Every structure is written in C-alpha cells, then in structure tokens.
C-alpha cells in the first residue's frame, strides 16, 4: 500500500534537468499532468509521479534524443548546415505595414507571418507568449490578428509557451501555429518524434512553428531584482532590444529609453542558456531574428533576418510576398557568414560549458557525441562511434 | 430513559472504566469537574456533563490541564469535592501548579484522574505520570478492575479530605476503555455549599490563606500526610493477597496488569504455586503490608507497564527490611523479564511466568495457528489516514503546493491533533511536516528555527496547529515569535472543535461542556492583537489558499497567520450530510496513464476514492464519501464531477 517510490521519468527529469540547472522553462513538461507547474519562471514538481515512460521526460528539450534522426524527419537533408540547421532560403525581411513595424520588434516579420497564417486559414489559432504581470510570461492562444499585435515584441524572459500548447490545444481548436524560442521549437519537434498514440491528433494539429533567434533569456527573478535596483518599474516597460555593437540592453519605458550594460545583465541570464547549442531555432519552419550583421545598425534596425527551413515555411513566406505583406531583401553573403560564425561560436561555447559541468567529454548531458553536429563543435578528435 | 450513570444503588451496571470512575465521583458527591480532553480520559467528563443538571455539577472543559487543575482546586479550597481529568501528557502541563497545591494542601476532597496510554495507542509518547506522585509527594491510587475503578474513586475523595491533599488516581487505556460489571452504591442526597474562609493563621489548614509557605514547615506537614496515607493503605481493602499460603513465586502488580497476571496464572495452571499481591495504593507503599507479603517466598515478580516504578519502590522498601525478609530474587524490568516499553498483555505475562516456573502454556487447539497463518496475509494492510472530507488533507495539500512553489524547502513544524498524522504517516500529509512534539511546541520550534538564519539556516518556516491546541498552549509561543521578530507563517487548522477526542468544545466554541451558551474567543482577533498579519481562508478553495500561503512565505520580517477554517467532516453539523454528490466520468478518467497516473488515489488518497484494478478507473465509494467536493478540484481531467445536493 501507499505510494510507490520507484524512480520514474519525473525523477530523471529532476535529477538530470532541474537539479543540473538545465531547465529552460519552456513548459514542455507542464500541463501534461498535474505534477509539474511553472511558477515564477521555475519548473516546479508538486507531487511524485512514478511512471517509467512519461511524456515530460520525452518532450523536454534537455533530455537525450536522437537529434540527427529528428532533423532527418523534419528537413530535407540537402538543406542542412551544421551551424544553423536547415536553410532553404536566407533573407532580410520586413513587414510592409509600417504601423505594425512600430508595434513589433525590428521588421515585425513574426507578427506579419502569424497574422497571415491566421487570415489564410493555414492555422486556426496562434500560441504566442504574453507578459501577464511584471516580467512573468505565459503562453496564450489567440484567434485574431489584433490580439497577436498586442502581444508582439521581444520579452527577453522565458515563456512557458509549450505549456500553453499542452493545455490549450484541443481537437476543436483546429490547426495551431506557435511562436517559439529554440528550446521550445525543439520540445515541439520532439513531440513529433515521440508522441503516444493518444497524442498524435494533438501534435498533428501543430501546423506552423515560427522560431525566434535566441542568444539567451533572463531569469525573471534576477532580472526583476536588477530592474528594481535600477529603479525601472517593470509594468512601465513597453519593449526591449539589444542594438548591434553597442553592448547594452535598451529598455523602452513610458518614461523613455533606459539602458543597462550587458555586463550587468549577464548575471541575470538563465543558467540553462549556457548549455544551449541552438541560437537560431533550428527546429522551426522559419526562423526570425534581428538583422544585426553587415551594415549600419540604424539601416538594418527595421529589418529581420529570415531563415526558411521547411517546405511549409517556404509556402508561407511565398504567400506573404504574393499578398504584399512581407518585403524581402536579398541578404548579403557576409551576413550569412557572420550568422554562421556566431552560431558556431555559441555551439562551441555551450559544449565547452557542458563538458565543464559533466567533467568529461564522454558525458555531454543531453547531447550525444554520435550526432555529427555535436561532434564537429565539441573540439576533440573523436571517431564517430557506431550507432547502437 | 435514565442515564445509566444515575442507576440506583445495588444495581449491577455494565460500565466502561471511565464511566465507573465518573460514577465513583458521583457517589462521593463531587461538585466541580474540570479537565482537558485527551484519549483515553475524555469519557469521564463527557459522561458527567450529561448528568450535570440532575447532580448539581459544574462541569468545565478548560483551556488546558493546568487551568483545569486550578479550577478544581478553587472548589476544594471552598470546601467542595472536585475532580480534574486528563491524559498522561496533561499531568506534565498541570505539574507546575500540582507541585504548589500539593505543598499548600487542600480542603474539600480533590482527585486528579489521569489516564495513561502505555504503547501510545493514541499519543505521541508513553510518558509515565506515576513518578509525579513520588516526586511531588502525593498519594497514587490505581484501580485494578471496574468495580474498583468506581469504589477507589469514591475512596480517593475521602482520602484526600482526610490528609487534606490532592490524590492522583491513575488509569490506563485498557482500564478506561474496557468495560465490566459494576455494582452501584448510593448517590448522596445532599449537595455541599461553597465557602472560602481565609481569615485564619497561615498554619491553619481550614481557615488560613492557602499558600505553600512557610515552605519547610508546610513541606514537613505534607510528608506527614503521606505517612498517614501509607498507614491507611496497610489496612485498605483495595490492597490484598490472592493465592496459596506458601507460593513459590509472588507477583506484585497493580492496575490492568493485575488482570493479565491473574489470567496468566490460570492459563499456566499455576494457581497452587503462584500468588498475587495486588496493590491499588501504589504510592507511598505500605511497608508493613509489603513486609507481610514478601515473607511468603523468595521469588518476587513485578508486573507493570512501561517504567519500573513499582519495582524500584518495592526493591528500596525490601532493602530496608532485609533482616526480616531475607534475600530475594526479583523478576521485572531491570533483569529484562519484561520490556520497559509498550503495553503488556496476558501473553507476555504467560511467557515470562512460564519461563521462570518452567511451565509451558497449554498449546492452542490443533489447526488454530495454521488457520491464522492462512488468513493473516489476506487481511488488507490499513494505515491511519485522514477521513473522507477531512479538511486537514486539503490543508496539507495547500501547504505542499505553497512549499513546492516557493522552492526553498521550507520547514513545517507539526503539533498535536488529528493533523499530527501528517508527521506519523508522511504520505497523507504530502511529506510536509517535519517535527512533532507536545501541544503548542510546533509554534515555539518555528519561532526558534526562524532565528537560525544568521547561522546559515535560511529557510521559510511554518507551524501548524489546531483550534483547540491554539488556546491550549500556542499563544505564548506566538507572542514570542512576534516579539522576537521570528519570521514565520503560522497556520491554524481550524476545524471547529476538539475533533480528535470527540468534539469537546473549546474557547472558540460558543457552548459549554453541558451545552449552555458561552461567548467564544476568536483566534483571528487574538492573532491580530499580538501584532500578526492575519488572513482567513477555506482550505477547500485550493487556489486562494495556496496563493495566500505562497505570498505569506515570500513576505519577510513579520509574523503571518493563516486560519484555514473548515469544520471537521465528522463534526455534528456536517456528519451524514453531503454537500455534493460525486461521480466519476469514466470516459474522461485517465487512470494510471501519463497525464494523471492516479493522482486522486495515489497522491490525494481520500479513502472514498478507490481504484478499480480491472477497469483501471477511479471509483467513488458512495458509502464513505463525505461529499466535500474537493476531489473535483484535484482531478486534472475534470473526470470527477460534483452535483450540489439539495438538503
């Protein structure tokens, strides 16, 4: 009698992800069951679950998975690059609507694409992150474009968007599009790789993932503290940005622009971001970031970089051009090279951090040294071991 | 129908031990009865409260045992007979006053009835109160059967009046809660009137001020009273020898152990070889009585529960009379014939006695043990748990949620009440409670834990206590916490009564022990007056309750009080009434699949939620479901539905 105490998936999740400081706060393990919740951007286990094969462990972007196989399923092999994943096309993009560009971040490409996907019936609902109170975020499901605009703009703290996907997607809801950070996009991709029969319908409703470039996210707790020290009222923040080459975080408040040096922001970065090898949301249909390479910042500030990764992503971008919603510019080659170099740099640094944490190049925590991408940036000579 | 406690003289009535004690007090003409509930003592006062009007009694459930003894003593000082009733722990609480009143002396007969719990069946200790009698120098009486429980109680009042001091009457679970036939005596026709005279000299026991000074002189007087008691014990019919003229072994015993010993002699067929000296007056021991009986044989076995109180006293007395009685061999606790922990029973005594007397007990009928072995594994194991609809389960659910969300591994200090089960069976309290001691101690401990941050223990600290416990012993600890700026979250699990012992009223209830209206003392108002930040919630409202708790935990620097108010599911106003009719929607129930994994039956574990192993679905046990509706909020699938029952 009594609760069994055998170790299950949940305990592995605690031991290998939460206790190791690898939790990204993406929300993949939340709202699947009553056992995990997100509180103050921390993943909290309320009660013990003893299941051996829980979805929480399978979906977590920081548990081991065969990423090479996942890429094979999701992308055309010819498109794959080691640095930034699959690339069908690489552009500078901008929403044609200037009003939208003022509301959203940089070129407003994400908002424009989501609005279009909704309008054209590619999706019936969009899940985006929403800043609910102070800096804490949650995922929300939206069905009309005005609501999407209200939630546009970078937030810099993590949002449990995948938790919203877990909770809000119902069969009646129809097809869904999600705006996701790299870790969130990976979690959603892993659902496709390993979904249980009863969840197939749900994951098949996921029709579009728009990825966001991400260098890191901030811990809401630490960041709130920093803002308090700087006398910045969290509620007054309208937007944030990191202008290229300036090494500061710009905070747009009701009382004007405030800047905090990135050095000061550094210690607010979520620990887990140091172990992330993905800066361009490689597991999305399209990925969007600021156009910060090759060129004067003020020239490109209102533009986005856009990576088209899948056929579905291409279809959406083509439609956007055709409908006159998105303006594309050919991106200069140096920009792509700079992006690749930066992405490769992040991969190397993350792997170095991982090795430092685990104490061995043989233990890469959630990554697998048989993955050629991982091996390439691990920085050690190693033969690819045969797959078991 | 007449209350059986008022049965006419000479009738034979089946009384529970505690009822026999109550009847004995009535026959003695008791006027004032006070106490604090505690198993196994509570029925004494409960039964007396039922006849309060007929017998002109003042019956009071006091705030705690110390106050109860003070209330009873005032009656004694005024010439009335009074009785104070408590469990063994209560004597610790009352002991400060007991020391002083034993020194000052008393007037009207006053008896402190304390019911002990060897084996701690309903306690978190098996503390011994017999030693208080020796330490505080008052007589100790221990009834050894049900008739004696009545008769000895009555005599205790006479003894108290004779020596002008408190007399302790000790019972144990198996005496208090077992039943036997008792022949009733007469109930007095006249009632005493109270008169408090204090205009005489300080040395006048009946007319002077009631004080323990001058200490040395009064102490000497107190010891003389004990000598008088010992003399009375020598001739008392409550002590006596039962057995052959020349026994090979003499058992000296008292209380329920007398019954075990008698049974053991019979089971071993040793009636002609072993005798029993039954002592019902166990402190001070009558040396003369002992001398007479210790001469009977050289082998002495002392049968008593828990500590070797009787053994020590008999041995000390025996040394003093060595010349007259010769060298003896003693069997008891000190030579490990009996354990010094837990309850005894006839079987333990049979084994010990059989070994010494080299007699094997008659074996059980053939096949009996075989049948037992067959049946035993089929008996489902049962653990103690909170009842269906119990607010405590939900309160601890909320506390767990808040602790986990807070994420700093906060410490929760427990206290005495049904909710103590959260410490004894951690799973039913969702592994939240970390300490459990005496009444009110949780709050004192929390107050201490909260001051350890400078030494590196920087965790949020909580304490829980029930409503009755709050009044009993928490208030000083709470004042201490606020005054010393101990940053704690204090939770009152207010279930509207002293639930564990049977809903005796406490100062928060606007009713007396006999059902008359009384003003209630509000917990929230007391906490506010102390200076705490106070909130009141219904623990069944999971969201609000855990929200307040987490915000309280995050707030530093002050005393925060959350009163979780929800009446016990067994309370008179709720019992048998369902607020909701609960149902399982089997189509929605995820069972043990990922997404739920039996949250309701594996984690929440209300006994009314059961698991159909074949269907792999949750089931509501309609018979025991209290209809509180909480599992509706627990189920992640909303597979548990609730419909309000129209009363």
Give a written overview of the molecule:
The complex is a heterodimer of chains A (388) and B (647). With 388 residues, chain A is of the alpha+beta class. Chain A contains 15 helices and 15 strands. Among the domains of chain A are: 216 residues, Aspartate Aminotransferase, domain 2; 47 residues, Roll (Nuclear Transport Factor 2, Chain: A). In chain A, the strands form four sheets. Chain A has an eight-stranded mixed sheet with strand order 7-6-8-9-13-14-5-15. A three-stranded antiparallel sheet of chain A has the order 10-11-12. In chain A, α5 packs across α13. Chain A is globular. In chain B, the strands form six sheets. In chain B, strands 3-2-4-5-7-6-12 form a seven-stranded mixed sheet, with helices on both faces. A six-stranded parallel sheet of chain B has the order 16-15-17-18-20-19, with helices on both faces. A five-stranded mixed sheet of chain B has the order 9-11-10-13-14, sandwiched between helices. Chain B is an alpha/beta fold. Chain B contains 22 helices and 24 strands. Chain B starts with 11 loop residues before the first strand and ends with a strand. In chain B, α15 packs across α20. In chain B, β2, α2 and β3 form a beta-alpha-beta unit.
Question: What's the name of the CATH homologous superfamily of the largest domain in chain B?
Answer: Thiamin diphosphate (ThDP)-binding fold, Pyr/PP domains
The level 1 CATH classification of the largest domain in chain B is Alpha Beta
CATH topology of the largest domain in chain B: Rossmann fold
Main CATH class of the domain at 67-215 and 278-344 in chain A? Alpha Beta
The count of strands of chain A amounts to 15
Side by side, the strands of the main sheet of chain B go 3-2-4-5-7-6-12
Strand content of chain A: 15-25%
Mean pLDDT of chain B: 96
Roughly what fraction of the amino acids of chain B lie in strands? 15-25%
Low-confidence stretches of chain A: 1-5
CATH architecture of the largest domain in chain B: 3-Layer(aba) Sandwich
Largest interface: A-B, 25 and 23 residues
The number of strands of chain B is 24
Q: What is the correct CATH architecture of the domain at 67-215 and 278-344 in chain A?
A: 3-Layer(aba) Sandwich
> Number of helix segments of chain A?
15
